[in-house]
Amino acid sequence: MVPVREFFDRPVLDVARDLLGAHLTVHSPEGAVTVRLTEVEAYDGAADPGSHAYRGRTARNATMFGGPGHLYVYRHLGLHHCANLVCGPDGKPSGVLLRAAEVIDGVDLARARRATSGVTRTDSDLARGPARLTVALGITRADDGADVAGEAGRILVRPRPAASSDQGPVSGAVIEAGAVPDAGLGRPIVTGPRVGVSGDGGRADLFPWRFWLDGDPTVSAYRKATPRRRADSKGAPVSPLPAP
């Protein structure tokens, strides 16, 4: 099996595809929760207008410029946290957003956490979407920069044993929306446009960089980007805000 650090020290599209089926465990005083990843999105730094690192390094995205195998956590619109796994070489920011997962251990703790932040109708909903996923796992902004590739720690990632060896690389090939590579996961992998990304970064023909397990009930629903608008002093909407 490829060492976890080496697993992340690869092109972002390869890492994203191979993270499907991986296990992520978060330990806490209340107990541990483990999920199996079912949906992710790839973001490739300066080459990708959808990436937080597209315009360079800031205090917010600094973790993306560090070494592979670390967690990048940011607060989205001031409402909830999103978690990303940093990959590629040090200084060249790329990462994989964790969009959805199946809770396979610590279900009671995940349910209790989710009950404090929203309605959960079924266990399939516990980590169905990036905000729900971080709540179920207990991930916050304080976890930004955490090393997930070690043998011990609060947050650990364990790729599936065959990942990065049972399929060829995808980074050097043309990825098309709707392509279904064989993953050996019991469900085919589907690719398509990223959720809620505006401009060119949200175009399926340019960046079909969302990867998910076809038909899995934990996968989130696709939504196009909604332009954010600010209001004038009287509350009337004016020109859209620029993308982050």
Brief account:
With 244 residues, the protein is of the alpha+beta class.
Describe this structure in words.
- With 244 residues, the chain is α+β, with helices and mostly antiparallel strands.
- Helices cover 12% and strands 26% of the residues.
- It has helices spanning 4-8, 12-19, 107-115, 130-137; strands at 23-28, 31-43, 71-76, 80-87, 94-105, 155-158, 189-192, 210-213, 229-231, 237-240.
- A hairpin with a 5-residue loop joins strand 9 (229-231) and strand 10.
- Helix 3 packs across helix 4 (130-137).
- Residues 230-244 have low confidence and may be disordered.
The percent of residues in helical segments reads 10-25%
| Gap from first CA to last CA | 38 Å
> Any idea what the radius of gyration is?
17 Å
Taken in chain order, the helices and strands follow as: HHEEEEEHHEEEEE
DSSP summary, beta strand count: 10
Number of contiguous helices = 4
Class of secondary structure makeup: alpha+beta
Indicate the mean pLDDT.
85
What is the makeup of the main sheet? 8 strands, antiparallel
Question: How would you sum up the global shape?
Answer: globular
Oligomerization status of the protein chains: single chain
Q: How much strand? A: 25-35%
Low-pLDDT windows of residues: 230-244
Give me some keywords for this one:
alpha+beta; eight-stranded antiparallel sheet; disordered C terminus
Q: How do the strands and helices of this protein lay out in sequence?
A:
Elements: H1 4-8, H2 12-19, E1 23-28, E2 31-43, E3 71-76, E4 80-87, E5 94-105, H3 107-115, H4 130-137, E6 155-158, E7 189-192, E8 210-213, E9 229-231, E10 237-240
Antiparallel strand pairs: 1-2, 1-6, 2-5, 2-8, 3-4, 4-5, 7-8, 9-10
